[in-house]
Amino acid sequence: MTVLTHWPLAGLRLTTPRLELRSPDPDDLAALASSAADGVHDPAVQPFTVAWTDAEPEQRARNVLQYHWRCWAEWRPEDWELNLVAVRDGTVVGTQGIGARDFAVRREVGTGSWLGRAHHGQGLGTEMRAAVLQLAFAGLGAQHAVSGAYADNAASLEVSRKLGYREDGIERHAVRGAPVELRRLRLTADRWRRYRSVPVQVAGLPECLPWFGLPGGGAAGGS
């Protein structure tokens, strides 16, 4: 008997031309926490709606560990958050999340991600997002995917544009004591099929389907 008997999500794998996305083991989480301690973005800006990166380096590392542990502990088929590490040539470069509430009814997912600063500007964010969109639309039968980015987060907005998202309104947030505008973005299944350009392979999904609130025994979508 292995951990997969009780936690099949540990066997889920998404593969792109340069990356493998997987549920992190303790060593992966340690590497991800260290990357967070080293820095995720320019300290002069704050791209996240929850300003967890404004903490000191050791606290940032601890935040990463506790966030992953909390998502595992609170997982329910009607309310889940899957956080995968992105690995390139054996190195953990960042994390890509996908989550949903009442997915079996709403068929809508949200995504979020970050890369260590040393790995910015290489197109890896696009591959990471493309991987979980493949999981959502081809593997789970999603109808919508939503995301969001502050108006000055050009990199995130460009990833969404490449993948076919459309504007879906704005929200006003307070960041570091100042008002900022967050742009909501939405991708439909039809537009995903039109814009998909990154080949993605999904392995280990059929055993996980009940954990996403879906009937088991289905087949994962390929490239």
Cross-sheet strand order for the largest sheet: 7-8-6-5-4-3-2-1-9
Poorly predicted parts:
218-223
Q: What percent of residues adopt helix (DSSP H or I)?
A: 25-40%
CATH topology: Aminopeptidase
CATH superfamily: Gcn5-related N-acetyltransferase (GNAT)
Number of helices: 7
| Share of residues in strands | 25-35%
Estimated radius of gyration: 17 Å
**N- to C-terminal distance:** 31 Å
Report on the biggest sheet: 9 strands, mixed
What is the tally of beta strands? 9
Provide structural commentary.
- It is an enzyme of class 2 (transferase).
- It comes from Streptomyces catenulae.
- Its EC number is 2.-.-.-.
- Residues 43-186 form the N-acetyltransferase domain.
- Keywords: Transferase.
- The protein is an alpha+beta fold.
- It has a single domain (3-23, 67-212), classed as Aminopeptidase, CATH 3.40.630.30.
- Helix content is 31%, strand content 30%.
- It is built from 7 helices and 9 strands, in the order H-E-E-H-H-E-E-H-E-H-E-H-E-E-H-E.
- It has helices at 3-6, 26-38, 57-73, 103-106, 124-139, 154-162, 189-195, and strands at residues 13-15, 20-22, 79-88, 91-101, 108-115, 144-150, 166-175, 178-188, 201-203.
- Strands 7-8-6-5-4-3-2-1-9 form a 9-stranded mixed beta sheet, sandwiched between helices.
- A hairpin with a 2-residue loop joins strand 3 (79-88) and strand 4 (91-101).
- The radius of gyration is 17 Å and the shape is globular.
- The protein starts with a helix and ends in a 20-residue tail after the last strand.
- Residues 218-223 have low confidence and may be disordered.
